[in-house]
């Protein structure tokens, strides 16, 4: 075993293997199929529009003005942007996850 390797890794080059439960793989397959639909494209466009809005406006609709001290509102807007991006990424990466699971 290598001195600084992963336990059980004799050469320090073995990649860890993950076994995906079948029910999770089924959910990923459904998400991958949905990511190819027109409905997902509409949803993605809507979320991207909302992200653009929250990059220039606060959650209550006020335009961001650098002279204002609205740190709390800006934190909320940033959290909303992150959630929208996470939704988009979950569906966009579903197909890759299914391919990776099938290779194992």
Task: Based on the model shown, name its key terms.
single chain; 104 residues; mainly alpha; 4 helices
Write up this protein:
- Helix 1 (22-34) crosses helix 4 (94-103) and helix 2 (38-56) packs antiparallel against helix 3 (71-92).
- This protein is mainly alpha-helical and 104 residues long.
- The protein has four helices and no strands.
Number of strands: 0
Number of separate helices: 4
Low-confidence segments, ≥5 residues, pLDDT <50? none
- Major beta sheet, specifics? none
Q: What does the radius of gyration come to?
A: 21 Å
Helix content bin: 55-70%
Query: Based on CA inertia axes, which overall geometry fits?
Result: elongated
What proportion strand? under 5%
Give the terminus-to-terminus CA distance: 24 Å
Structural class: mainly alpha
The run of helices and strands is HHHH
How confident is the prediction overall: mean pLDDT? 80
Helices and strands in order:
Elements: H1 22-34, H2 38-56, H3 71-92, H4 94-103
Helix pairs in contact: 1-4, 2-3
How do you describe this structure in short?
62% of the residues lie in helices and 0% in strands.
